[in-house]
């Protein structure tokens, strides 16, 4: 993997250099109307490709596609109205030293055209600026089909699920694209099939780390693979996920997005904090709208942004907390001052377990407010206006890390017991799992494998130990239940939790211990791939990057591959 860098001419620099995003390398040029137009080129070769070289390529590609802004810790692509040059070039070469170049739109990561030697081909829907500016030194032509999957699969004569992906598949696709030429007798079957391989292994893998991980595992196995249902589901729902996340209320969606697991079973995602696995799997979001100023820290000057501001929904959800229990208005009684407690989540939603997140940051059930009595640590249901009059707090901050915070006192919504019937209260925020909550309508723990260093799976070794081993489908000791309270539990022993040592010292071994609601048992999957213990700010790590030691430890975050983890449902 390499990123080619050359300088832009002084003409371009003098005219628009100050407005150009400094994160981009000006690496390729075409002369138009006396002005040198810059393009970024990111390169990758299948020759002797490794998991490391492929992941580094995708990391570079994401860096050039991202705007520099994040929503819920996920990088967002550029707003179209702010883009000066709309395309980025990806040069792919193979074991035969043949090269083709994909042109990718920087606002959506869609492939619009490709170049092979002195010939270039554009999708039939790539009209306008793309055709007028790209590959001008080549003989340019249009393909008969568009770049959407329906057209590509129709011309290819096969669905994505039937077309192998992997390094050898990409190697062959590059050869096919390099030699193919339009003309009488030359069908487009080969080019469509090859583009399906390239698009998924480049653009889709940049969007989703799940797809990147699938390719990396195939590199390790030195074999191709067929896309599974989870991968296809993500590809089909990228725009829907991007929209739902950016138009969410404190991370909670207006309506769920339906995805599929590897085995084909459906599940609904209605929160960006769905056990945090969504945050770590998404590499890029399509720009949809600008979050409201109070919720958005911009890294660029406001003049580059339109007035396209996200709408904020008012979703009605359940609030799940410690041990998978739900926040419940006691006995369904809405008299002012009635306490809020933990109870078993009902199989069908009932009024006293339904909460509406309001735009003004109130959390309501049956029109009354979740209220903190400022004189006490208790939490109760109360008439919103009366509560404000008596000085009680009715405004809440629902954070991506699972905390629900009183913004005035900075205290966290908590429970002193993990048993049904225990009352909710307020306490100093120490990021304990007794203070972890999930605001959505999925009340059952999310069961997943967790892939780590060297594409090995996290496994429960014995009752208290965990380490890495080869991933095996259906192995229950490799299945982990991600609870709403931030705890991670062996599927086969859900009274046990992954725990770091109470002294919070780097290098101490991570164990599986009885769940206690402590700070040592609350974790968060971050977008950088780490599994963070929120209290200590340390991350899970493989000791000495050596899985044979069979020791998982906590360490200061360094960016090492031994600290990268990915939930794979």
Structure description:
The chain is α+β, with helices and mostly antiparallel strands and 569 residues long. It has four domains: 2-221, 3-Layer(aba) Sandwich (Ricin (A subunit), domain 1), CATH 3.40.420; 233-304, Irregular (Ricin (A Subunit), domain 2), CATH 4.10.470.10; 316-440, Trefoil (Acidic Fibroblast Growth Factor, subunit A); 446-568, Trefoil (Acidic Fibroblast Growth Factor, subunit A), CATH 2.80.10.50. The strands form twelve sheets. A seven-stranded mixed beta sheet has the order 1-4-7-8-9-10-11. The protein has a six-stranded antiparallel beta sheet with strand order 20-19-18-17-14-25. The longest helix has 19 residues, at 189-207. The two termini are 29 Å apart. Keywords: Disulfide bond, Glycoprotein, Hydrolase, Plant defense, Protein synthesis inhibitor, Signal, Toxin.
Q: What is the arithmetic mean of pLDDT?
A: 90
pLDDT under 50 segments (min length 5)?
A: 1-27, 30-37, 294-305
By CATH, the superfamily of the largest domain comes out as: Ricin (A subunit), domain 1
Beginning-to-end CA distance, first to last residue: 29 Å
Family: Belongs to the ribosome-inactivating protein family.
Catalytic activity: Endohydrolysis of the N-glycosidic bond at one specific adenosine on the 28S rRNA
Subunit structure: Might form dimers or tetramers of disulfide-linked A and B chains.
GO molecular function, one term: toxin activity
């Amino acid at each position: 993997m390499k990123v080619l860098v050359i300088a832009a001419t002084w003409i371009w620099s003098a005219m628009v250099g100050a407005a150009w995003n400094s994160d981009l390398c000006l690496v390729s040029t075409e002369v138009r109307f006396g002005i040198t137009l810059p393009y970024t080129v990111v390169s990758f070769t299948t020759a002797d490709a490794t998991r490391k070289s492929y992941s580094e390529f995708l990391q570079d590609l994401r860096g050039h596609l991202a705007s520099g802004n994040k929503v819920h810790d996920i990088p967002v692509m550029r707003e179209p109205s702010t883009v000066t040059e709309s395309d980025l070039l990806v040069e792919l070469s193979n074991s035969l030293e043949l090269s083709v170049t994909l042109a990718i739109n920087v606002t959506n990561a869609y492939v619009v055209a490709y170049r092979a030697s002195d010939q270039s081909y554009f999708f039939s829907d790539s009209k306008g600026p793309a055709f007028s500016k790209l590959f001008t030194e080549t003989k340019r032509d249009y393909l008969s089909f568009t770049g959407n999957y329906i057209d590509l699969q129709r011309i290819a004569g096969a669905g994505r699920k039937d077309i192998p992906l992997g390094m050898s598949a990409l190697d062959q696709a590059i050869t096919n694209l390099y030699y193919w030429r339009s003309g009488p007798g030359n069908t487009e079957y080969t080019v469509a099939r090859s583009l399906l391989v390239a698009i998924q292994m480049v653009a889709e893998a940049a969007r989703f780390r799940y797809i990147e991980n699938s390719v990396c595992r195939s590199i390790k196995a030195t074999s191709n693979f067929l896309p599974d249902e989870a991968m296809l589901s993500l590809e089909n729902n990228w725009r829907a996920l991007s929209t739902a996340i950016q138009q969410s209320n404190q991370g909670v969606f207006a309506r769920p997005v339906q995805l599929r697991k590897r085995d084909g079973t459906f599940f609904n995602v209605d929160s960006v904090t769905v056990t945090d696995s969504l945050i770590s799997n998404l590499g890029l979001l399509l720009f949809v709208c600008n979050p409201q100023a109070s919720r958005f820290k911009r890294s660029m000057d406001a003049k580059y942004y339109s007035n396209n501001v996200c709408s904020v929904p008012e979703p009605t959800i359940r609030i799940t907390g410690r041990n998978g229990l739900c926040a419940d208005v006691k006995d369904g009684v809405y008299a002012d001052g009635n306490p809020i407690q933990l109870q078993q989540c009902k199989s069908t939603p009932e009024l006293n377990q339904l909460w509406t997140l309001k735009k003004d940051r109130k959390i309501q059930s049956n029109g009354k407010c979740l209220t903190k009595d400022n004189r006490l640590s208790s939490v109760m249901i109360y008439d919103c206006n009366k509560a404000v009059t008596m000085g009680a707090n009715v405004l809440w901050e629902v954070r991506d890390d699972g905390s629900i915070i009183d913004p005035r006192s900075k205290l966290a919504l908590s429970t002193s017991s993990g048993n049904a019937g225990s009352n909710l209260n307020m306490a100093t925020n120490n990021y304990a799992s007794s203070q972890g909550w999930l605001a959505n309508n999925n009340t059952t723990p999310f069961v997943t494998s967790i892939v780590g260093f060297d594409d090995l799976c996290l496994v429960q070794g014995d009752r208290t130990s965990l380490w890495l081993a080869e991933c095996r489908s259906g192995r229950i000791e490799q299945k982990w239940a991600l609870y709403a309270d931030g705890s991670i539990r062996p599927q086969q022993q859900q009274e046990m939790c992954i725990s770091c040592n109470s002294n919070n010292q780097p290098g101490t071994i991570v164990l599986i211990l009885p769940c206690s609601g402590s700070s040592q048992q609350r974790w968060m999957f971050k977008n950088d791939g780490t599994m963070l213990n929120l209290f200590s700010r340390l991350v899970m790590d493989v000791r000495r990057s050596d899985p044979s030691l069979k020791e998982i430890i906590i360490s200061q975050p360094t960016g090492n591959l031994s600290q990268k983890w990915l939930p794979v449902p």
